[in-house]
Amino acid sequence: xxxxxxxxxxxxxxxxxxxxxxxxxxxxxxxxxxxxxxxxxxxxxxxxxxxxxxxxxxxxxxxxxxxxxxxxxxxxxxxxxxxxxxxxxxxxxxxxxxxxxxxxxxxxxxxxxxxxxxxxxxxxxxxxxxxxxxxxxxxxxxxxxxxxxxxxxxxxxxxxxxxxxxxxxxxxxxxxxxxxxxxxxxxxxxxxxxxxxxxxxxxxxxxxxxxxxxxxxxxxxxxxxxxxxxxxxxxxxxxxxxxxxxxxxxxxxxxxxxxxxx
Length: 262
Fold this sequence. Notes:
13 helices; 0% strand; 262 residues
């Protein structure tokens, strides 16, 4: 009887150990790093402002964006990227939320025609401008390029299509931006020294050539983050940054992933 009791106790003990192991495995699986749905990443952020943006994005709630004051539009863009985007949803929103939703929908679907939902030349042009960092992801055509009201960006777009550097000479209203166009057309970052914003020029050339080494030459952290993520498509590159910029990089990774850019 005593041996049987000891045997039963051993079996019970083994079952308890096995149960604890299964529970532990389930917990680890649930909370392992999953870029698509792991909201716990927000807790690790050092900036309260970015924490709010992070939670807003994962919870898909615009209402919390009012807590970050002047950065609310950035927060709204993060939230828009996370929504189950469709035309009906976007058209049911108001003000900047509506615009941001449509911008995100256009980027996610790689369809610039969605910008036409906004109505009004200025807002449509702004939507096209919001697509400009993702020119390499879009099915470019001459019609799309010609709808971009910003002269220099319009010819950068056309140059990417044709690789005709002579088109850059058409830039008259923004003469200092001609350098961007020439740099893209010739794949020569030397032109960027003459650009109004040399970092933006480097970004355009880096993305056009899928060259992460050029990203490293960018001095502005926000542009460097965008550049590295779009080319490397890997959240581990956020470890190249510290503090707030690392947090921003992580948020941007999720945003670009939500929009099917990475």
